Amino acid sequence: MARRKRRKDIAPVFKPYDQDQMLLLPPSLEEMIPSNHLVRTVNELISRLAIHSLVNTYKGGGTSSYHPMMMLKVIVYGYLCKIYSARQIAKALRENVAFMWLSGGNRPDFRTINNFRSGRMKEAIDSTFGELVEILLESGFISFEKYFLDGTKLEADANRHKVIWSKNTQRYKEKAKEKIREHLRRIDEINERENREYGDRDLEELGGSREITAEEIERTVKRIDERLAEKPNKEMEREKRKVEGKYLPKLAKYEMQEKNLGCRKSYSPSDIDATVMMMKDGKLAPGYNVQLGTENQFVLGFSVHQQAGDSGLLIPHLEKVEQTAGRKPDVVIADSAYGSEENYCHLEKKNIDGYLKYNTFHKEQERKYRENRFSKDNLIYHLDSDCYECPAGRKLVFKKTAKGKTDNGYEYVTKVYECEDCAGCGFSEQCRKGKGNRSISVNETLNEYRYWARQKLSSDVGIELRKQRNIEIESVFGDLKQNMSYRRARLKGLEKINCEIGLLSMAHNLKKVFASIIKDTVEVSRVLIRGLLLNRVNVVSF
């Protein structure tokens, strides 16, 4: 018997490798894409969109344009692949088989992609997203019954250390005005002195107490130039140059800053729409407040705002959702940041069932808070005399009614109660914080809303929805920031950020659809395998 060859004596065998090999038929890109690939889900669902608003952004005439459907597919799929740069998307269209198949061989450059995303898509993102939500609703992925709302801070693509503050702008503006007034007074004095000597006064008083604006100062400088053309004066010319060359540009700059600020307290010069906010890491940085509403971890609505607080954003967010999706949710679930009188009242008017926590909801569950006799909420109220009784037995009587208004224009009323006399009270150090008699402000309307909110949140349904809220919305934020690596804005400007968040939300929803399809496929496979195994066992047993 021939001795068996050892493994080391056997020559290795390789598969054929010939780069110059010719193919009789060119390969199809379709054959290179697996049937269960994510790109097929993107292609299928986006192809079902009407995109009328996107098509309407194009004008007739001129050279042909890339098809908006193709451009939308490519950008959304790029976001799914964590590719947010237009240059990188353009590169993928030349190198990545999935991108090539999705684009049908088209290769738009990065400028075309940027112009489409920042220009045309910016105008049509809300309606396009609404169409996708409608498809998800028809397909049974969502029902629009439960709407879990929350917000997150998105850091802007701007310098953290260069910020325009409203207080500084106002202070510097007043200093510039004062300097201008000072130089104009000197010009007045020079002009009056010349008039006493030569007569024919031709300049009005410039350094008066009237309001000074850059536009008004420019007109004044022109009148001074006319005066100097007729009667040259070196001293007046020197004062005029200081006003025109140094302080007038400063005043114009500060007025422009005030215009950019609007009702805000700050903004970034590198992105004037970004407002300084407290980020998750505890640092102040220019950013945007992104509001998302979810159901089954699908994004149903989104909105981007310049305000840092969430309380005043519920109403504009829901209004945008109703405009975009064409319907309003049945139930809204949100945390304590949204528990204001304005929001409770809005949900009641819209006939929306709300499960909104308020700021003291969790404290009320604590024994320490409930047993605190000095807390405003635990004081004894006498309805017949409309007064409160403190632990010392002294009365806090009604003093006045105070009115307030929110940033959205909602008016609310509070009643102020004050103790008749806190002098000599043994509980004064525990009861009051400052000097004088203790006073409390009571919003009766808000207290009534809180009572009903407390009953709903403490019910079995409320407890279940509160648990579900943490899973719902926080999972979506985690997916966007961690899995999709979107922790900082890539574009600048409120409208462009709104477009980017819309595209990102579409990408997230498509990924959820794909995951659901894969899950269903796996479940079917398990059922089939289980059935085959069961049949085999039965045959063997027989």
Note down, in words, how this protein is organized.
This protein has 542 residues and is α+β, with helices and mostly antiparallel strands. Among the domains are: 29-139 and 513-518, no CATH class; 164-267; 363-452, no CATH class. Helices cover 50% and strands 14% of the residues. It has 17 helices and 13 strands. The chain has helices at residues 29-32, 38-47, 52-55, 68-80, 86-95, 97-103, 110-138, 166-198, 214-230, 234-261, 314-325, 341-349, 367-370, 428-431, 444-457, 460-483, 494-541; strands spanning 146-155, 164-165, 266-267, 275-278, 284-295, 298-305, 331-334, 353-356, 380-382, 387-389, 395-405, 411-419, 439-442. The strands form three sheets. Strands 1, 4, 5, 6, 7 and 8 form a six-stranded mixed sheet that branches. The protein has a five-stranded antiparallel sheet with strand order 9-10-11-12-13. Strands 2-3 form a two-stranded antiparallel ribbon. Helix 5 (86-95) packs across helix 6 (97-103). The longest helix is centred in the C-terminal third of the chain and has 48 residues, at 494-541. Mean pLDDT is 86; it is low at 537-542.
Q: Biggest sheet, open or closed, and with what strands and sense?
A: 6 strands, mixed
Beta-strand content = 5-15%
The helix count comes to 17
Low-confidence parts lasting 5 or more residues at pLDDT below 50?
A: 537-542
Give the overall average pLDDT.
86
- Total strands: the figure is 13
SS-based class: alpha+beta
Described by the principal axes of the CA atoms, the overall outline is flat
